[in-house]
Amino acid sequence: MSERMEKVNKLVKELTANFLNRESTSASLISVTDVSVSPDMKKAKILISVLPSNQEKTALLFAKRKLGEMRDYLKQNMETKHIPFLEVDIDKGEKNRQKIDELLREK
After folding, report:
1. pTM assigned to the model
2. Mean pLDDT of the chain
């Protein structure tokens, strides 16, 4: 991955995390765990984790409803020519890592 792509990924991750933190309620904690921007910078996939985990579905629906506003927030705070269209999903890799850690602690 090029240095430019790494910077864009990092910036989108920071800005989306700030946006979600600002817009979400205190019912759950939404963390942006990873962002992957396509090489043509037209799409960005945002992976989130949610605590407590029983709020995942609600938090994911909230984040999906806010994608338009989130993209507008990126437009206001990024100085790039192209602002990617956003997609959001639960980070299943992070969820699996947490489950493995939990199982290892039980032994």
Report:
1. 0.84
2. 90
| Bridge partners (DSSP) listed for residue 35 | 46
pLDDT for the residue numbered 66? 95
Phi-psi domain of 46 (left: phi exceeds 0; alpha: psi -120 through 50; beta: other)? beta
Cα 85 to Cα 6, 7, 80, 82, 107: the distances in Å are: 17, 17, 13, 9, 44
- Give the CA distances from residue 91 to residues 45, 47, 83, in Å, rounded to whole numbers and listed in that order: 11, 5, 22
| Mean pLDDT of the 3-7 span | 88
CATH code, domain with 46: 3.30.300.20
The residue range of the domain holding 70 is: 3-106
- Split into its structural domains, the chain has a count of 1
